[in-house]
Amino acid sequence: MLRNIPVNMQGYKLMVTEAPQEKTREGENGKSEFVTDREGVQQFVVSLFAKRRVQPGEFAGKGEEIKVTLTADPGEGFEEGVYVQLVDATVSHWENNGRSGLSFKANGLAPANVQIPAAA
């Protein structure tokens, strides 16, 4: 199974459709519980509308909403309608009970107009 493949989203406009919040899941007792990584660090999730950037004369096509797990609290300023970029984004393929898809993960968010240093 392919996991944590670096992905370059520079060719897409990413707009927040649901502000970042703590990631939760339904626990065994049916109650909502916070999601943490293997080290116990709280995870966050943000919903983004991704649409391809186009050059003059090109057709943009349809966009798609994606949910991105964030490995840390992105902080303030990422409310609905804000354009962002992902910091150190990865994608993984998943399969479960006959269903499959892609899951996106990033180390954080940055405003769309900020230069992000390359990952080491």
Architecture blueprint of SSEs:
Elements: E1 5-6, E2 12-22, E3 24-26, E4 32-34, E5 44-52, E6 64-70, E7 83-87, E8 90-96, E9 99-106, E10 108-111
Parallel strand pairs: 6-9
Antiparallel strand pairs: 1-8, 2-5, 2-7, 3-4, 5-6, 7-10, 8-9
Overview of the structural elements:
The mean pLDDT is 91. This protein has strands at 5-6, 12-22, 24-26, 32-34, 44-52, 64-70, 83-87, 90-96, 99-106, 108-111. By secondary structure, the chain is mainly beta. It has no helices and ten strands. It has a single domain (5-111), classed as OB fold (Dihydrolipoamide Acetyltransferase, E2P), CATH 2.40.50. The strands form two sheets. Strands 1-8-9-6-5-2-7-10 form an eight-stranded mixed sheet, with no helix packed on it.
In short:
The chain has 120 residues and is mostly beta strands. It is built from no helices and ten strands.
What composes the largest sheet?
Answer: 8 strands, mixed
Return the CATH class. Answer: Mainly Beta
Q: Give the termini separation.
A: 24 Å
Find the structural class using helix and strand composition: mainly beta
Under CATH, the topology is which? OB fold (Dihydrolipoamide Acetyltransferase, E2P)
Helix/strand order: EEEEEEEEEE
Strand content: over 45%
Structural domains: how many: 1
pLDDT below 50 for ≥5 consecutive residues: which ranges?
Answer: none
What's the rounded overall pLDDT mean? 91
CA radius of gyration = 15 Å
